[in-house]
Amino acid sequence: MAAAEPTADPPDVDEQIRYEVDGGIARLTINAPEQGNALTPAMRDRLADRFFEISEDLRVRAVVLRGSGDRHFCTGAALGSAQRPSPPKPEGAPERGPGDVARLIRTGWQRLVGSILDCERPVICAVNGTAAGGGMQLALACDIVVMADTAKFIEVFVRRGIMPDAGGAYILPRLVGLHRAKELLLLGEDCSAVEADRIGLVNRVVPASELDATADTFAAKFLTLPTRAVSLTKKLANRSLESSREQSFSDEADFQELISATADMAEGLDAFRERRSPEFKGW
């Protein structure tokens, strides 16, 4: 009998989603260039888990997210990847039950995008290459977006006969207005770095060789700022897009109450009185 062919070990998700914390900056790298940095379900879930973990980590004061290589930031979902195993089905039940697709969307890409929007640290995205489909939403959910001049965005869904997910129809109109958002979503055409800058999708467009340094410069700024105040300012700004004036003012007052108890606020006031630069600790 011929020997069985050896089976390849499954990819190590911690190698595909690289994570390190150094000097107060958490660095997340999508490391699957052979598949355009597309996310398998395991990669997607690990990335979301990391953002939730970061909110609890007092070492971290800023996050930098990027893709591996220079061609792709993230091209969305890795099609054909194995999904999470489903619970056993009774005999005669359909392969796809009512609510399965909606549940998959909610607990998959929506959870990932929400983990960035809700992350209690500022997230800087270095768009090093093509950001397509969910990968575009992944980038635009970040707080600061730096884009290489060789990169591009594509709301690719309509090209595949499907509609946007990963919060695209929520995020885009809030960034560029309804008409420009519809142009991107309904036509699915490439959006160059120059065009992305012109319509306000990004904070900076830089030569590809300067991308990492520019992202690091932004991250370094947050190392000297009061982390809790930055976190609640991010939360207040995100909420403002769908809040009434009354609700926004109420949130502002509540968040100020929380900030008033922080060591960083006490330090900021002391430094002002003593005419020196503050030394914020992040709590």
Mean pLDDT: 92
Which spans of ≥5 residues are poorly predicted at pLDDT below 50?
1-8
* Secondary structure tally: strands: 10
CATH architecture of the largest domain: Alpha-Beta Complex
The number of distinct helices, counting runs of at least 4 residues, comes to 12
The CATH superfamily of the largest domain turns out to be 2-enoyl-CoA Hydratase, Chain A, domain 1
CATH topology of the largest domain: 2-enoyl-CoA Hydratase, Chain A, domain 1
CATH class of the largest domain: Alpha Beta
Radius of gyration: 21 Å
Instruction: Report the helical percentage.
Output: 40-55%
Q: State the secondary-structure class.
A: alpha/beta
Shape: globular
Compressed to H and E, one letter per element, the order equals HEEHEEHHEEHEEHHEHEHHHH
Strand content: 15-25%
Number of domains: 2
Arrangement of strands in the largest sheet: 1-2-3-5-7-10
Ends distance: 66 Å
User: Biggest β-sheet, characterized?
Assistant: 6 strands, mixed
